[in-house]
Specification:
This protein has a three-stranded antiparallel sheet with strand order 3-4-5, with helices on one face. Strands 1-2 form a two-stranded antiparallel ribbon. Helices cover about 45% and strands about 15% of the residues. It has six helices and five strands, in the order H-H-E-E-H-E-E-E-H-H-H. Helix 5 (about 145-155) packs antiparallel against helix 6 (about 160-170).
C-alpha cells in the first residue's frame, strides 16, 4: 500500500509554494536552478534542507489527518495533529503527530486520547490483524437449529475444539 508517492510529493511542493513556503525553503539553489534533491556528484550531496524537513513534517501530519479523519469521525472521535499531553510525556517539543481524541484540541488529558497513530504502529496493527487466525461466519438459521449446534459444539473438550466444531456445523 503506497500512501506517499511521486504524485503526493509533487502535490506537496505545489501547495507549499502556493500557500506557505518560498523556493529557498524547499529547493536547493544550485548552478542557477532550483532542485528538489541535490544531484549526484554535485556540491552539497547528502545535505538536507532543514526548513524543508520541517515543512514536509507539517504537510505529512496534515495529510495523514485528512486520510484518517473519516475513520475518527465514524468512531465519534476527532483526528488531531500535534497532540500535547504532559501525563503521557507528549510535550510541545515531542507531541503526537496524530491522535484520535474525544475533544478537538491540541492540549489533551490522557483520558481523552483514544489512539496515537504512528505511519510503524499502523503497520504493526495491520500485521496483527492479518496474522490472527480469525473466522468469519454468517448464517440465517432458526433458534432451535442454533441451539442444537451450540449444544453439540459445547461437548468438545477445549475452546478451540468447540469453535472448530461450531464452525463445521454452522457451515453445514
Amino acid at each position: 500500500m503506497t500512501l506517499w508517492n511521486n504524485d503526493t510529493e509533487i502535490q506537496f511542493f505545489t501547495e507549499a509554494l502556493k500557500n506557505f513556503a518560498s523556493p529557498e525553503q524547499l529547493f536547493y539553489n544550485l548552478q542557477g536552478g532550483y532542485f528538489a534533491y541535490v544531484p549526484k556528484g554535485s556540491y552539497g550531496e547528502g545535505k538536507i534542507l532543514q526548513s524543508r524537513n520541517s515543512l514536509i513534517g507539517q504537510y505529512t501530519e496534515k495529510w495523514c489527518k485528512t486520510l484518517f479523519e473519516p475513520i475518527a469521525n465514524e468512531l465519534g472521535l476527532h483526528a488531531v495533529n500535534s497532540v500535547v499531553c504532559d501525563e503521557l510525556g507528549l510535550s510541545k517539543r515531542s507531541s503526537a503527530d496524530l491522535a484520535f481524541c474525544t475533544t478537538n484540541n491540541n492540549f489533551q488529558k490522557s483520558e481523552n486520547i483514544k489512539l496515537i497513530l504512528d505511519k510503524e504502529q499502523l503497520l504493526n496493527n495491520c500485521k496483527e490483524l492479518l496474522n490472527n487466525d480469525m473466522n468469519y461466519f454468517s448464517s440465517m438459521i432458526s433458534k432451535s437449529k442454533l441451539g442444537e449446534i451450540i449444544r453439540i459444539a459445547s461437548q468438545e473438550n477445549t475452546d478451540i475444539a468447540k469453535a472448530e466444531k461450531f464452525l463445521t456445523l454452522i457451515r453445514g
